[in-house]
C-alpha cells in the first residue's frame, strides 16, 4: 500500500475514535459470539494504528496492546480477504511470529476477518484463535464474515451518534443565539416604533406653528414682494410634504404598535369608510365594490387603514390616457379570505413588485407622489393578521394588490 493510502486509512480509523476507549456491551457481545461460532475459546477485536495493535475487546484471554510488527492480524488485513489457518505454524508468514513461537502466545488455529470500511480502508480485524489445530466449515466462515460486518455497522452507528450529538449541540447553540437575536430584534423594533411615534408627534406640533407663521407672513408680503411670496410658497409646500411624511410614519408606527383587537367586521363597510375618507381622490374615477363582500375576523381599525392606503394608491397613480377604474373583490381561498384591490393605472414594474413593500421604497422617486411608507404599512398590518400580501399586474395594465386574512381568528 502507498504512503498516501496509509495516511487515508489512519485518518478513517481515527475518525471513528475507537482507540483507547471502552468497547461497550454490543461489541463485547459480538466478540463472544464469534468465539462460539468458531467453536474456539479465544476471540479478539483488533485495531491497527500507526505503530501498534490495539485489542479493543477480547474473549478467553487478557487483552493488551502490542507492537504492530508483532501482530498476526497486521500481516494481511489490508488485503481485505479473510485469513484462515488451521495450523499457523505451517504458514511461513506466521511461523516466526511471537504469537506463534510462544513469546506472546502459542497460536495454532488462526482466523481473521478484516474490518474494511465502505471506502475500502481496513481498520483491523475480528480474530478467533486456539492453541490447538482446528478447522472451520464454510458456514462458520460465512457467519464470522457476517459478524465482521456487524462490527463495522456498530462502528458507524457510534460515529454517527457522535456526529449527531455534535450537530445537536450546534443546533441548540444556534437556536439559543437565534432566540437572543429575535428577542433583541423585537426589543429594537419596539423601541423604533415608540421612537417613530414620539418623534413624529413632537415634530408635528412645531410644523403646524411654522405653517401658521408662513401664512401670516404671506398675507403681509405677497402683494408687495412677489419673490418673497414665491419663497414662502415653496416653504409652505415643503412643510406640507413634511407633515404628510410624519402622518405616514405615525400610521406605520401605529400599525405595528397599536393593540391588536380582531372582531367580526363587515368588509363592505370598511371599504365604504375608506372611500369616504378618500372622497376628494375618487373624483373622476369608477370604483366597483361588490355588495356581497364577506364578514371578516380582523382588527377593523387596521384593516380600514390598509384599505385606505391601497385604494388611495389605486386612485393616485392613474394613467392620463384613460379613465381610472378601481375594483375591490374578495373570495374564499381554502381557510383564508383573499381580498384584492385592482386598478388600471400606471402599474408597478415586475422587478419592483416585491420591493415596494419595503420601507421608503418608491417606484418613481422623481415623481414626488409619495414617501414609500404606505405599502410597508399595509405589509405590517397584513403580517399582524397572519396573512400575506403581494402585488401583480392587472390584466390590461395596472396593479392588483392582493392580501390574505385567515378565516379563523389569528393572534398578533
From TrEMBL:
GO molecular function: kinase activity
Subcellular compartments: Cell membrane
Domain Histidine kinase, first and last residues per copy: 198-409
Catalytic activity: ATP + protein L-histidine = ADP + protein N-phospho-L-histidine
CDD domains per record: HisKA
Record-linked InterPro entries: BphY/WalK/GraS-like (IPR050351), GAF-like_dom_sf (IPR029016), HATPase_C_sf (IPR036890), HATPase_dom (IPR003594), His_kinase_dom (IPR005467), HisK_dim/P_dom (IPR003661), HisK_dim/P_sf (IPR036097), Sig_transdc_His_kin-like_C (IPR004358)
Keyword terms, alphabetized: Kinase, Phosphoprotein, Transferase, Two-component regulatory system
Main location group: membrane
Gene3D superfamilies listed in its UniProt record: 1.10.287.130, 3.30.450.40, Histidine kinase-like ATPase, C-terminal domain (3.30.565.10)
EC number: 2.7.13.3
Name this protein carries in UniProt: Sensor-like histidine kinase SenX3
Amino acid at each position: 500500500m502507498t504512503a498516501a493510502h496509509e495516511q487515508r486509512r489512519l485518518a478513517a480509523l481515527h475518525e471513528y475514535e475507537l482507540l483507547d476507549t471502552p468497547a461497550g456491551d454490543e461489541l463485547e457481545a459480538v466478540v463472544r459470539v464469534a468465539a462460539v461460532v468458531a467453536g474456539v475459546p479465544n476471540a479478539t477485536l483488533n485495531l491497527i494504528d500507526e505503530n501498534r495493535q490495539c485489542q479493543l475487546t477480547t474473549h478467553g484471554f487478557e487483552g493488551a496492546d502490542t507492537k504492530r510488527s508483532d501482530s498476526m492480524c497486521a500481516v494481511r488485513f489490508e488485503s481485505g480477504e479473510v485469513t484462515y489457518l488451521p495450523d499457523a505454524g505451517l504458514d511461513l508468514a506466521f511461523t516466526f511470529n511471537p504469537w506463534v513461537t510462544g513469546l506472546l502466545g502459542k497460536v495454532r488455529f488462526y482466523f481473521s476477518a478484516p474490518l474494511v470500511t465502505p471506502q475500502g480502508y481496513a481498520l483491523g480485524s475480528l480474530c478467533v484463535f486456539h492453541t490447538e489445530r482446528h478447522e472451520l466449515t464454510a458456514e462458520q466462515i460465512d457467519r464470522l464474515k457476517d459478524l465482521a460486518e456487524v462490527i463495522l455497522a456498530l462502528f458507524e452507528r457510534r460515529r454517527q451518534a457522535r456526529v449527531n450529538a455534535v450537530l445537536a449541540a450546534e443546533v441548540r447553540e444556534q437556536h439559543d443565539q437565534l432566540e437572543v437575536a429575535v428577542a433583541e430584534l423585537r426589543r429594537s423594533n419596539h423601541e423604533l416604533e415608540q421612537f417613530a411615534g414620539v418623534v413624529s408627534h413632537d415634530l408635528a406640533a412645531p410644523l403646524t406653528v411654522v405653517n401658521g407663521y408662513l401664512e401670516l407672513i404671506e398675507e403681509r408680503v405677497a402683494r408687495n414682494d412677489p419673490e418673497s411670496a414665491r419663497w414662502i410658497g415653496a416653504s409652505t409646500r415643503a412643510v406640507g410634504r413634511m407633515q404628510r411624511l410624519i402622518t405616514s410614519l405615525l400610521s406605520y408606527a401605529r400599525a405595528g404598535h397599536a393593540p391588536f383587537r380582531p372582531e367580526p367586521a363587515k368588509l363592505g363597510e370598511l371599504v365604504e369608510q375608506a372611500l369616504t375618507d378618500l372622497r376628494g381622490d375618487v373624483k373622476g374615477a369608477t370604483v366597483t365594490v361588490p355588495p356581497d363582500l364577506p364578514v371578516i375576523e380582523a382588527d377593523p381599525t387596521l384593516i380600514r387603514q390598509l384599505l385606505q392606503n391601497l385604494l388611495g394608491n389605486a386612485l393616485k397613480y392613474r394613467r392620463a390616457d384613460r379613465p381610472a377604474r378601481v375594483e375591490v373583490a374578495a373570495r374564499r381561498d381554502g381557510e383564508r379570505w383573499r381580498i384584492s384591490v385592482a386598478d388600471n393605472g400606471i402599474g408597478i414594474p415586475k422587478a419592483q413588485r416585491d420591493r415596494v413593500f419595503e420601507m421608503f421604497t418608491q417606484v418613481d422617486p422623481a415623481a414626488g407622489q409619495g414617501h414609500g411608507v404606505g405599502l410597508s404599512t399595509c405589509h405590517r398590518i397584513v403580517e399582524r393578521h397572519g396573512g400575506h400580501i403581494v402585488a401583480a399586474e392587472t390584466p390590461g395594465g395596472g396593479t392588483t394588490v392582493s392580501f390574505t386574512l385567515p378565516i379563523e381568528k389569528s393572534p398578533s
